[in-house]
Write a structure and sequence with these properties.
Layout lengths: L3 E2 L1 H10 L1 H12 L4 H7 L2 H13 L2 E2 L2 H12 L17 H6 L11 E2 L5 E2 L12 H8 L2 H17 L10 E5 L14 E5 L14 E3 L14 E7 L8 H14 E12 L1 H4 L15 H10 L2 E7 L10 H4 L4 H6 L1 H7 L2 E8 L1
Parallel strand pairs: 5-6, 5-8, 6-7, 8-9
Antiparallel strand pairs: 1-2, 3-4, 9-11, 10-11
Length: 343
């Protein structure tokens, strides 16, 4: 007799992992729809699955069990890519259609969320940065972020940054990374005045654009780090310009470290922040790095949770444990970490 799974047994699992469990369960009911279900994972599909599980006791066949196992193992898409493809409309496309548009320049947007850009007429970012970031994070969340970066710089980044190397934090803001990393020479690059107090910590502060900072360093550096920067760029062309400037800033064989939200993993929540403008996956990030002169040596598609408002970040004491258990990265990770060497 084949086993039967009831709604009461499945409900707790669905509540914990709705994005994974519901499509998997739908596959056991309608196997032929597997590609569609895993491509969309929309509210309609999940709603239908919930109704079916409530109203109907379904049978879990051996074939269905295999599908669920494979789906859970390959859910991050690195092996089985059942996913939709979306075209991102760039300002260059609008120009080709004859539509009037305005593109501002770019400065720095870092892990602190500080945006400073200018196109010569005083326009900066989306134009409301001070209000955006004062509203976005509470004092408690800011403190949790600082503690999180202390742990990351203590337990994770030393394998990529030696204590005698020179390091640039691009889009440093208040310097959560650069104030905690152990390095011989520490440089914060940002247009925001929030970075200036870092000079009191022995950190060199350079107020410059992300596309024009290399010549201001004085000499090439060993490592360039950026966190949550590229999604704020106005176009993908500017993303490439930023990466090319990083290449110019590095010594031959120098490292670029990029921590970046991944739209394939985050989904629609990627656009929950008004200042996000460019969508990247781990694949497009790697392609951008390679054509900008980097040899990509390591990619962790799922690393950290998406935002500092996550449960993990609010309980910063758990970050050390999280870093020691890569299995948790596959469950909670929505940001990609990539490492490249300057060729």
């Amino acid at each position: 007799m084949r086993p039967c799974i009831s709604w009461h047994l499945v409900a707790p699992v669905i509540r914990l992992f709705p994005g994974v469990t519901l499509p998997c369960l739908c596959v056991t009911i309608y196997p032929a729809l597997a590609p569609l279900l895993f491509a969309t994972k929309g509210a309609l599909v999940q709603g239908c699955a919930v109704w079916a599980l409530r109203e109907l006791e379904f049978t879990l066949t051996p074939w269905g069990s295999t599908v669920i196992l494979l789906a859970l193992v390959c859910h991050d898409g690195t092996r089985m890519r059942w996913r939709y493809r979306a075209r991102i409309i760039e300002p260059e496309d609008l120009a080709a259609w004859g539509t009037e548009h305005e593109v501002h320049g770019v400065g720095c947007v870092g892990e602190d969320g500080n945006v400073e850009t200018s196109d010569g007429d005083g326009a900066q970012g989306v134009g409301r940065e001070d209000r955006i970031y004062s509203h976005r994070y509470t004092p408690r969340e800011l403190e949790a972020r600082l503690q999180t970066w202390e742990i990351l710089c203590r337990d994770f980044f030393p394998r990529y940054v030696n204590s005698d190397q020179s390091v640039v934090d691009l889009g440093a803001g208040e310097g959560f990374f650069i104030r905690n990393v152990k390095a011989g020479r520490r440089i914060a690059v940002d247009l925001s005045e929030q970075s200036i107090p870092l000079e009191g910590l022995g950190i060199q502060v350079i107020q410059a654009h992300a596309t024009d900072f290399a010549t201001k360093l004085g000499s090439p550096v060993d490592v360039v780090f950026m966190s949550n920067l590229l999604e704020h760029m106005p176009t993908k062309r500017v993303v490439l310009e930023v990466l090319e400037e990083c290449h110019r800033a590095l010594v031959p064989g120098g490292k670029i470290l990029i921590l970046q939200p991944n739209i394939r993993l985050v989904g629609a929540a990627y656009w929950d922040f008004i200042d996000h403008q460019v969508a990247l996956t781990e694949h497009s990030l790697v392609e951008a790095m390679e054509i900008s002169g980097f040899e990509v040596t390591e990619v962790i598609p799922r690393f950290l949770p998406y935002t500092s408002k996550s449960v993990l970040s609010n309980f910063s004491a758990l970050v050390g444990i999280y870093l020691q258990v890569p299995l948790l990265w596959r469950i909670f990770g929505k940001q990609t970490f990539a490492v490249g060497l300057a060729r």
